[in-house]
Amino acid sequence: MPKLRKMLGDVNSAECIALMRLIETQNERTLAAWAVGYAKDNFLGIYENECPGNVCLRDTILACEEYLKGNGKLCEIKPVIKEAGQLARDLADNPTAQAAARAVSTACASVHTPTSALGFLFYGAAAAAYSQTGLEQGAEVYDKIASKELEKAVDSLKQVCVPDEAHPVKVKWNC
């Protein structure tokens, strides 16, 4: 079996650059709500197929959704997000589940770290690629799927973008 990457996608690709530019135009709440919703719709199911019966990530998403509605405090939700991150680290024996769990936990972390609204997509691309084609493919196959996943994310974020956002996030990309 080829060595699998934890993340898939190219930070210098047109899709990734488009995502970064879109992210720079939105506020933290818009980005977090989009990231949590996108992870719920696209990556939570992959995790739940790999780990049936485990509701930790679903509960984390629900907690983040409640927080984004104004229910609760950030200090209450951070430990829940941290627990989801630990769950992902504990799944080293299942690369598909681990990538999906990392995607979900990182998307949830966007409630306090805006750059996570981009980072979760690289884990999600790996989860999607491994889920769709298995763990035996070469880099070319995985990279093609990752590119399509990032294109899909660009389209999704465009749908929720607030035009002329008054208070966009200030991010420094370290990639």
Automatic annotation (TrEMBL):
Domain annotation Imm-5-like: ranges: 22-152
InterPro entries, A to Z: Imm5-like
Domain of life: Bacteria
Protein name per UniProt: Imm-5-like domain-containing protein
